[in-house]
Every structure is written in structure tokens, then in C-alpha cells.
Amino acid sequence: MDAQGRGRDEGIDPADQWVLNPDTGDYELRLSASPGRSSAPTGASDVRTSGARRRTKPGATPPGDRATVPGQRGGRRSAGGGRGGRGETRKQGSRAAAPAATGRRKAKPQTSRKKKALVWTGGALAFLMVGVGTAGYFVYQHFNGNITAVSTDGAGTGGFSKDRAINVLVIGTDKRTGKGNEGYGDAGSVGHADTNILFHVSKDRTNATALSIPRDLIADIPMCPTKLESGEEKDIPATPGGRFNTSLGQSDRTPSCTMRTVTELTGIEVDHFMVADFNAVKSLTAAVGGVDVCLAKDIDDKDSHLKLSQGEHTLQGEQALAFLRTRHSVGFGSDLSRIEIQQQFLGSLMRKLKSSDTLTSPTKMWSLAEAATKALTVDDKIDDINQLRKLGMELASVDPKNITFTTVPVLDNPNDKATVILDESKAPQVFSMMREDVSFTAVAKQEKAEAKAKEQAKLKGEMADAADVRVDVYNGGAPSGSAQNALDWLQNEQGVLKSTNQANAPEDVKKTQLVYAPNQADQARRLADMMGMSASALKPTTTDAGAMDPMTLTLGPDFTTGGSPLSAPEKAPDDIQRVEADKAVCAK
Fold first, then answer.
1. Out of 91-105, 280-294, 458-472, which region has the weakest mean confidence (pLDDT)?
2. Residues contacting residue 442 through CB under 8 Å, at least 6 positions apart
């Protein structure tokens, strides 16, 4: 009998068979000898896998080598709850048998920095807790067999990296499968992108931004190469000006298409995605013993079936899901109001999971990991517990006080009151800050501020009149048509009439740059000021230019449209909606 089966047979909670090793800071499996069972035979050797120690006979396959056990049930569940799934891969779960070892009393777990994983949404948060909650705490094969994975279809970056910022897209679907869920709205929903959070963690891991994308936002959904459930691969046509939520489910679209839509909208390349349905919310909130919420007024919502009095409550399971589905009884009764209470809920969930009550409870951690790995769908680049652990460790150092929830700035659609459109005066600024890794909280290091000030000093000096600026515009990796777009903006809105479109550049550039001669510095400063370029984008030559010679502006991938600043603003617009994860806010 394996470790887990033995624990159940003897009435022992499996989580309580893991003991903290004070020398390593990791949990290790300790199995007490049972009546009628002998201790480990002579010659048995210790094998450690992800920090867990099991006794194995000489020549036996170590657990980490993924040996299969006859009769072992494994494989992955589809997102809908059955076997198989759209473009998913399967991994056979296994559990290595372990002879009895000499027992010892369980030490009281101490909270370590390694266990303080960043947790930011109902599903993804638990996945990251699995990854970070000490390497040997979870039985690798058991949880690995729970994971459901879906192909990225070539979307995104191909995976996170230690040396750059991390972007993870968390999608909550409105699929109504599962007990008790048929009462929420459209029982026949294919599972649209109902709740969407782009979670950005800074390169230096000091801060993070969770950007909510409204489901009813009008957005261009690009053409999506997709591997279907049948194994067939096809290109799903683009939908210009569609609702964002139809980037998933509609026309056989998978989460990889939502990834592409996010990049199309924000200019931010996504590393990974995680998908949670209604069942995930219920099981995960139950696993942590409920989430604390605060209400500024009584709520009685006939659509979500939530009825609560003013004040503080602890919600889990069905009641937690009802809270997250509520909109008519809060704020203005719109989906944007629901986004606000979802952010408040997730902030509270984050605080709950970072608490010592959760981190020092083996039983809670076990339940949380079990619920998370069964309830969530991830992309195929993180379809392994070890990969999830690595991702979690990258995120573990971010303090909740430096995590900001915000929402894409939008306006009511004048042509359709049921949808919203981008607020072009604010949204580009928010996207630019995230692309350029600018914090929404006051955690920027002093050296960054000093470097910024030094860089901006280079731009000081006299500026030429717009009418005197001569520049040739090239496309060096920007979206198609960008050179003409920039030219139209410069001539029609900025008065730079001595400008020409020179089509494609001889070579692409990583970022937009302006090459100018020393005697064109005043022109360069004027153009940089117009386009919001940083000093690092200005490339002076060593010799003066002729009176009629133009400067050379080469547009890179960071260029989106004329008028959108190329350097990120230093702070977010003052009046955008946002809330810090460490602050408790009462729903109104």
C-alpha cells in the first residue's frame, strides 16, 4: 500500500504524515511502523524527490523517475470535467510505494519565506501555493496527475523567464457545468471569457499589477491558429470589433485565442494562462476555510441568489460564487461594479492565504493543492508541478501592499449601451506602464528615480519649431502601416510638414529610435517631446548634417499609433479605478 493509501487505512490524515525538517526547511514524509509491519529492510536507501524522503529498496525506481504502478488511476480531466479536452495533453499520475520507516513526532511547522507564495486569484493563487509551499510538501505524482493542460497554439512568449517581467492571464469562464451551477444565467454557455485578469509581476519582483479586462469591452479578436479537441488544426477567422468575452468558447476558440486578443489590445506578450470555472471558485474557497468580505449595505440579489446583511461575513463554496457573480445589488449594477467586488474578494483571499493560519496548516495546504490541481486548466508550458513551483518561487517575494488591482479604463459605447469601449485618453497610458514595467505603487527604488532624472536631463535645451523639423520615417518592426500612421499624425496634428514616409527600414530595431546629427539636436528634442520618447531612444551621430538633410526616425515594436507616448508615464492616471491588495474594502 502506498503512503496515501496507508494513511487512510489507519485513519491518518495524509497531510499529517509530512514533517518539517528544521535542517533543510522542507517537509519530509514520515511513516510510522504499523502493527504487523516491519521496518525498512537492510540495504534500503533514502531517495529524495522535491524535498520528500521515501525509503526504497536497492534497484527500485525512485519516485522522481515517474514509475507507473499497476492499477494506478491517472490521466487528466478535461476543462468540462470529463476525460480528454480541447488540445490538451495528458500525463499519467503514479505513486511510489514506500516501506514503513521508523516514526517520529511531527515538528511544529515554521512559516518560511519559501511558503509565502504570491496569491492573486481564486484559481491561479492555489496553483502557485502548490508550487511554493516547500518543495517536498506535496506528492509529486499524485498532484501532477490532476493537472489539465491546453495548448498555447504558439501564442505568447513560450514561457516565463527569471530575467524579465512575468505576465500571466487568468480567465474565469461562465461555463455552467457541475452541480448547482445551472441556476446561473445561460445554462448552455460554451464557456466564454467572463472574468479576465492580466497579472504582471515586475522584472525585479518588487511589485505587481492585476489588470481586469471587462468582458463586454469591444476589442479586435485576431485570427487564431487553434488545435481542436478532435486533433484538427485550423485558423479561426478574426472578428474585428467583437466582444472580448467571445475570444474564448465562441467559434471553437480556446484560451490561446484570449492570449492573442490580450496582446492585440494591450501590446503586452503573455507568458502563461490559467482557467477556472464556477466549480473552481467553490472548491478553492472551501479549501481555505472561507474568505472574509465586508458589505457597506444589505445585499439581496435575485440573479446571483446572494442575500447578506451589512457587515462582515466569511464566504465559501456556493455563497462565495454568488458573491463573485453579484452585480445588480452593488455599485451601478453593471459588470464594472462586479469587477470591483471581485478585486476586493481576491485581495482578501490573498491575505487569507498569506496568513500563518493557512501556511502552517498541512491539512489546509493539502486540501488547497488537491482542489486547485483538479479544478484548474493551465497552458502546456506549465503542465508540471515542478514548473508551477518554479513560477511560484519567482512570484513569492511580492508583498500584497505592492500589488495593485486596476481595470482597463473604458467608456460607455455610444452605439450599444450593453458594451464598453476603450477610454483612449487613459487606457494607452495604463498599457504603456505595464509594458515598460512601471509600478502602480510607490515602491520604485531610489536608483531608478535617479537614473530617470539623469536621463530626462539629456532632453533639456532649446527646441526647434515643428515647422523646422525634418525627418524621414521608417518602419523597423512596428505593425504594418505604422510609418504612414506616424506621418499622418506628425503632419496633420503636429505641423511637422517636412517629413516623409520611407517605408521599411533596412534593419528592424528592438525599440523606436531617432538618429540625428549634433546640429539637429534642437529638432531631435522637439520630435522626442512630441512623441514621448526617452533620451535612450535618441542616437546622435558624430558629424554635422547638411541644412536640408533629415533626421532618421525608425519605428520599432513599441510603436502603436501616432500620439501614443513611446516612453511610459511615471504614474497612473489619478482617477482610474484601483485597489491595493493589502487593504480591506467594503462592497457598496
1. 91-105
2. none
Q: Which set of grid coordinates corresponds to residue 468?
A: 523646422
pLDDT band at 229 (very low <50, low <70, confident <90, very high): confident
Rounded to an integer, the average pLDDT of 385-414 is 84
Angle at 227 (CA atoms; ends 174, 167), nearest 5 degrees: 60
User: Which residue in 455, 433, 174, 435 sits closest to 321, CA to CA?
Assistant: 174
Residue 193 three-state SS: strand
Q: Any idea which residue has 496553483 for its cell?
A: 127
Instruction: Give residue 458's pLDDT band: very low, low, confident or very high (50, 70, 90).
Output: low
Report pLDDT digits (tens) over 344-364: 888 888 888 777 677 677 777
Q: Which amino acid is at 166?
A: I
* Alpha carbon distance 395, 402 (integer Å): 12
260 in Cβ contact with 224 (< 8 Å)? yes
Terminal alpha carbon distance of the chain: 54
C-alpha span between 109 and 356 (Å, rounded): 10
Q: Which residues contact 376 (CB under 8 A, 6 or more apart)?
A: 123, 124, 126, 127, 147, 148, 274, 275, 276, 280
Give the residue from 319, 318, 388, 341 showing the smallest Cα distance to 125.
388
